[in-house]
Specification:
The complex is a heterodimer. Chain A is an alpha+beta fold. Chain A is built from 8 helices and 6 strands. In chain A, a hairpin with a 2-residue loop joins strand 1 and strand 2. By secondary structure, chain B is an alpha/beta fold. In chain B, strands 2-1-3-4-5 form a 5-stranded parallel sheet, sandwiched between helices. In chain B, helix 1 packs across helix 5. The chains are: A alpha+beta, B alpha/beta.
Chain lengths: 215, 141
């Protein structure tokens, strides 16, 4: 399973231990389980989700549900039925893959988007600037995000797409997304497979986890 | 489309705007354009009496009046007691489900639900309802 670091990165201004605290707060795990997982992770708190799952305290699905409860956004185990062929017109495949989001539909001036971390204000801001609409996030597992992106942009075989929707979809606008270096106090770091936006003050911690700054 | 969706309207009782849009989308996918929404439990019965919806989707945790109270109010009124109600709630205890079904709900869907499954349940239900309604009633119960 890929690391669940977006939950615990500094991209939303939260400290790295916040995921565990959030999961305790919403009742997904007990404080004792949180501390045991922290001990097992030898203080590497960005691995807390992996350890909680490996120790059998919870599941990825329950973690995502907990995040949804905390962020007060709907959580879905499946996105089937929530998108149409026209959903791919909302944003480009490249942007969907880069931001790890699935554009679902637009109603009035709001675009509903599935993502892993609904607290990621930079992604939401980038989507809002790109589409020109307000963004409503829903939460789902990372595996579901990529599975759906593949169906939405990479062919329709095996998926049940309803193509007769009368709902108008917005076209992507040519607005540049600000890079991390343009955001005050924020830097982009990568481990080669994913890029996180974190507070500059957290760079040393990120380096310990194998992330390096994106120049 | 398996049923005459244009004759139906649905009352969505949900206080989370994001979830309201999810319901709106699922209903539009079924061809239903008549969607009335409220996020306040006290407004459900008056809106039901006013619009006579074919179906009500009801969250149990509503401000103003809780969903079970709303359900009892709907079933106690001759104008609204026959309107079918599907409860869509994050409350998943057997007791909650039992209470809602005993209060008159026709179905209980637990959040998080499978969007496609809920859409199919709505379509199947309205399809069945459509065959039971005389053409000159305009789809209203």
């Amino acid at each position: 399973m890929p690391p669940l670091s977006p939950f615990s990165s500094g991209s939303s201004g939260h400290k790295r231990s916040n995921l565990g605290e959030v999961l305790v707060e919403v009742g997904v795990i007990s404080p004792e389980q949180f501390h045991q997982a922290l001990t097992s992770a030898s203080g590497a708190e960005n691995d807390i989700a992996k350890w909680l799952i490996d120790l059998g305290f919870t599941t990825e699905e329950k973690i995502m549900k907990g995040i949804g409860i905390k962020a007060k956004v709907p959580y879905f185990t499946s996105l089937e039925g929530l998108y149409t062929a026209e959903s791919s017109n909302i944003i480009s495949e490249e942007l969907a893959r880069r931001l790890q989001v699935v554009p679902l539909f637009r109603i009035d001036n709001v675009v509903t988007v599935a993502m892993v971390n609904p607290l990621d204000v930079y992604t939401i801001d980038a989507l809002s600037k790109t589409t020109g609409y307000r963004i409503d996030p829903v939460v789902c597992m990372r595996s579901t995000i990529f599975e759906t992106i593949n169906k939405l942009y990479g062919g329709w075989e095996g998926s049940q797409i309803i193509s007769e929707t009368p709902i108008q979809m917005p076209m992507e606008k040519s607005i540049e997304i600000p890079t991390a270096s343009q955001k005050s106090g924020t830097i982009a770091v990568t481990n080669g497979t994913e890029t996180l936006y974190i507070d500059a003050a957290d760079e040393a911690d990120a380096a310990k986890d194998g992330y390096r700054r994106v120049e | 489309m398996g049923f005459d969706a244009v004759h139906h309207n649905v009352l969505v009782c949900e206080d989370d705007p994001a979830m309201v849009r999810i319901f709106q989308f699922l209903l539009r996918q079924q061809g239903i354009r008549g969607v009335i929404t409220t996020g306040n439990g006290e407004q459900v019965a008056p809106l039901a009496r006013q619009h006579k919806p074919s179906l009500i989707l009801l969250d149990l945790m509503l401000p103003g009046k809780d969903g079970l109270g709303v359900l009892q109010e709907l079933k106690a009124n001759d104008e609204t007691r026959l309107i079918p109600v599907i409860v869509v709630s994050g409350k998943e205890s057997n007791e909650q489900v039992h209470q809602a079904m005993m209060a008159g709900a026709i179905d209980y869907v637990i959040k998080p639900f499978e969007p496609m499954e809920l859409g199919m349940r709505i379509q199947t239900f309205l399809d069945t309802l459509n065959t039971e309604i005389a053409p000159d009633t305009g789809g209203m119960l």
